[in-house]
Amino acid sequence: MSKQTSAVERQQIPTDIQPWLDITGSMTQAIADATNLTPYVNITFSGVDTTSNWEQQSFPEVSCFARQIELKAGDFCCLFARSIAQTESPAALALATLGNRPLADLLFHGDWQAGEITTAKRGDDEFGRAVNWHTPDGQTIMVQEFIRLEFAQRYTPRR
Questions:
Q1: Model confidence at 81: pLDDT above 60
Q2: Phi, psi of 56 (to 5 degrees)
Q3: Of 24, 31, 33, 116, which residue is most buried, by most CB within 10 angstroms?
């Protein structure tokens, strides 16, 4: 991600985006339910990258395997996401082999448990959340999801 990311208080996040931050299941499924379209993953980067200072606060690695995507429904970009794992770890291999499948195919079909959610902003106008997912054997994937404001103004998640 070329834009700088930082933690923000929830009240700083636009109200249209806030309901999307409460999704506990698959964001892909929530987008499908809201839009009545089948979302698809557009990979914008996949490979070894350097972690940002902000990422290093909760993911203490200087180098990582990163997978950056846009999740689209039709021609509309709904969110940007960046998932990182320790370089050359089983988690990195799992990310690398996802291809164009959503991350939910990995996280919700295994032993992954979500940690504490941090609300975040990317640049001046993209807001979302970050969470470290862990397995019992010590694997970690940090997932950052930034909902596009234009999308959130048009669609609300179904409850």
A1: yes
A2: -65, -15
A3: 31
